[in-house]
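Consider one such protein record:
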Amino acid sequence: MTPVVGATVVTAATARDILRRSSLGQRRSPKVFIPGLGAPGTLHDHPRIRCHCIIGSFQGGSMSKTIPQASKRSRAWIWLIVIGPILSVVGLITGFASAGAACRSVVGPKEGLVKSYGTLQGMGGEERTCESVMDAVAVPTWTFIVLGLVLFLTGIIVRSATRKRAYVAGEQRPTKQGVNRRSILQGAVAFFATALAGAAPAYANGNVRYVSASGSDSNPGSVTAPWRTLAKVRSAMASGDLQRGSTVLFKRGDDFYGSIHMPSLIGSSGTLTIGAYGEGARPRLLGYKVSKAAWTQYSGNIWKLNIAANSGQYSGNTSEASTNVGFLKAAGMIHGRKRWAISELAADWEFFSDSTYVYVRLGVNPGAGVAISVQRDLLRLASHTTVQDLYLGGTGAHGVTTGGKNVVIQRNEIEWIGGSALSGTTRYGNGVELYVGAARVMIRENVIRQTYDVALSAQGTGTAGWTDITWESNRLENCNMSLELWGKGGGTGFLRCRFINNTCIDAGYSWAALIRSDRDGKGTHLLTYSMEVPVDVEITGNSFLGARDNYTRNSGDRQIPAGIITHRNTIKLGAGKKIAYGAENPETSEQAAQWQARTGREQASIFAVSY
């Protein structure tokens, strides 16, 4: 038998010489053909030689003449298939690389530390630098990825055509052994298609509309001719111009007044995405009615302003009909002392509102620029919706609500929420509230602050329950409660719900903490009551840092419901703070071990008296 290298027939001595030269550092990989062997020969097995071997039986010397021709013909498609993936991988490596300290990558998650907490830490300059670097990196990233895919697919097409021509010409094909080459190529195609789909920009496909404070609702909604108002966005949803699979993007750094209450979305597939474009701070969706210099004196130190829809005495959320005021904000200060009659106004900035006016007690005319929150959820989401990268603030009701399915709420900043009357003198307002029927909802990487009631809540009456809900990696600070769960009506209740890896800070120290009428034990991280449904909830990996009253407050027997599994959390409370509300739970933060032993709760959790 005579081994063949490329087009050259060599002897066994020549083969040994090849091995000797390879061991001395020659790295070029010869193509080796060993006639008559059914398994790789010596050259193939040598660790220092990378060989492309075709193994088969030969009749005389005839096939040694056809192999070089096949080899030459195959080189082009091999190079295309090899170089294409390499280029795509280079593009992915470039895209996934961080664009700066604490900054996201081009093809990685859309927000990083700067985006999530830039406002808290004053990192706006670094954020703009990150965005600039990412814009520069984006072009070569996607060029390499797309070019690599094109070359790869071209190689497959060329190979297919070559094989077909060879077959038609009657050329003999080498016997294939081991894994089928076509299966390898098909698998590679599927791999790269999947990788590129995952790395593609979030807004690469579908119907995209843009909204800017400098736009016009008569525009087509393109990036160069954007819409202007939330009212236009709402009408586009109602008409079906924005539907499942569409995207609406608000310009960063701009303010938009009003709210979005979605109808059931038109379309049978895809997700409606609401997000941001451009550079700068998150676009702000605000519910405030902002006073003009139109206050009139009602009597003495009491002033009034007409806040009915389109009264002309305020700017901002001009078309909102509600006059149920939650709080006032003037010169950056929140004033939340709502009274129930004009005669009860006894101190500066106490207020009362009826169906037309808001009345404020103050020694001087309140003037222009007083932000007035009223009862209206800022975002009410339909099923199949993603909301991300927005600032939501300034409402007397909830920030975001949904009872929908397949919903994602991520990387938003939500603050200054609640205070309107719910019924009688009961006030309310949560950061994100999930109604009965919510399913497959992901709430992650949001920052939620300063709510009248709860940062995150799932509550209601009905049989549909809450299914596959995840609250993950959110930062909840200065809300009256961090997480609230309650349900009535039977049915499925809470099924596969998880509250994981969240950071909860200073529960009970919100703007409303000292003006609530129901303060007893309500400054707490975990609140449960009226739990009359099945419960399947896991609370783990969280940090609960500081609380005005206690770590947990539960109705009924004052114990955390059996279906809620709490473990591997970090709980830090001030000295003398109760772990759980009620006389049934006497232990303070210094007695955490006793409470754990008695209740069986918070196994493997860390308690500390250090906050």
Notes: DSSP finds eight helices and 43 strands in the chain.
